[in-house]
Amino acid sequence: MQVRPAPPVAGALAAVLAVTLTSCTPVARTPTSPAPPTATGPAPTTAGSTPTASATTPGDLTLGADGRPFTVSEVARFQAPWAMAFLPGSADALVTQRSGTLLLVDTTTGDAREVGGVPRVRAAGQGGLGDIVLGPTFATDHTVYLSWVESGEGGSGAVVGRARLVTGEAPRLEGLTTIWTQTPKVAGDGHFSHRLAFSPDGATLFVTSGERQKFTPAQDMGVTLGKIMRMRPDGSDAQIWTSGHRNPLGIAFAPDGNLWSTEMGPQGGDELNLIVQGGNYGWPEASNGSHYGGGPIPDHAPGDGFEPPKVYWTPSVSPGSLMIYDGDAFAPWQGDAFIGALSGEALIHVDLDGTNAVEADHWDMGDRIREVEQGPDGTIWLLTDGGAGRLLHLTPVS
Ligand SMILES: [Ca+2]
Ligand SMILES: [Ca+2]
After folding, report:
1. Residues near ligand 2 ion, CB 5 Å cutoff
2. Distance from the CA of 241 to the center of ligand 2, in angstroms?
3. Dihedral through CA 40, CA 42, CA 48, CA 50, nearest 10?
4. Which pairs from 161-164 meet CB under 8 Å and 24+ separation?
5. How remote is the CA of residue 397 from the centroid of ligand 2, in Å?
6. Which of 65, 205, 275, 369 has the most Cβ atoms closer than 10 angstroms to its Cβ?
7. C-alpha 211 to ligand 2 mean position (Å)
8. Which residues contact 95 (CB under 8 A, 6 or more apart)?
9. Which residues pair with 145 in a beta bridge?
10. pLDDT block averages, 10 residues each, the chain of length 398
């Protein structure tokens, strides 16, 4: 399933890859039926493990009876949750629901309170209330950043805003202001992307901006569709940082300062990209996938002028989120990437080493994974997708 695109593989390696691809053909699934909650989490399986798992997984994590280095417990359920962010030094987390509600959740009990003052959103298709992250100076000003979809002339589009979070008896957002608007607004309700990440120094905000299922805008430097944007925390000096993106639904900095993004390919060709200023990531001129129905697209290839993915997945796993780990609970994973797969119904662990990336683990979770988040204590949290989306807590096997 995981194939390194360049350099061209020799015959023997190609044969191995062919076998790998064949063995990774997805098993039959029922994506519209979330797995029933159980005390022990999803049924154990090794179907999604890659051949590289045993070679690259550090050996000092204790494995459970199901062969996994974590135990899964369900904490709460939400209506189409999309993103979450923990408040610093707290078990409380903010959770967005796509329909346009924001919740303040006590993750020790699962109790949730609605946060007032949220923006009116256009909730349709893939759009609605989207990402939420804490501002770089949250400790002193309680500023949070969130993204959503609004209607307007021409159709709809993503926007980013910030507000002050007031906690206590009546949690609410105050002083909400829009700081960035995806342009132009177009018809349709797909590929907004609108994931957010601050640079480690807090000086710049990165926003993923999908191509709205319109293809060619991703190569048009006159519009912000199909781009990753960089701006100051107040939204000023917004600039196109990278181009040629399709639907980048994950963005995160590694502890070493490298910026990574996951992107949904078309039919195949999902990507993990190393984001470098000025890079053109190829869409729709190059992709290791094909158009739906089979129309060919040239693969990423050396010399084509495009930045190739560091890892790609064919068939698609539908990466919907990206978290790069820096905690202590799973210390061997520090600096590694964790990707929530929607259609792939998996949690994918990618070993990052500087600018190199290799898939290390691929755990079948039996449900569409919408969000991956690291908790304050270094344990890992997942939100599953859909109307009865589950908040899952992954803790080390004891
Ligand atoms: Ca998050
Ligand atoms: Ca690409």
Report:
1. 281-282
2. 15
3. -20
4. 161/119, 162/135, 162/233, 163/117
5. 37
6. 369
7. 13
8. 78, 81, 83, 84, 102, 103, 105, 112, 383, 391
9. 133, 162
10. 38 35 34 35 32 48 95 98 96 98 98 98 97 98 98 98 96 98 98 98 98 98 98 98 98 98 98 98 97 93 97 98 98 98 98 98 98 97 97 96
Amino acid at 233: P
How does pLDDT run across 4-48, given as a tens digit for each residue?
A: 443 333 333 333 333 333 333 333 333 333 333 333 333 332 323
Give me the percent of the chain exceeding a pLDDT of 70: 85
**Ligand with an atom nearest the CA of residue 382:** 1
Q: What domains are defined for the chain? A: 78-383 (2.120.10.30)
Whether 191 is catalytic: yes
The CA 124 to ligand 2 mean position distance, Å, reads: 26
Q: How far apart are the first and last CA of the chain?
A: 31
Residues 6+ apart with CB under 8 A from 328: 377, 378
Active-site residue identified among 142, 191, 291, 362:
191
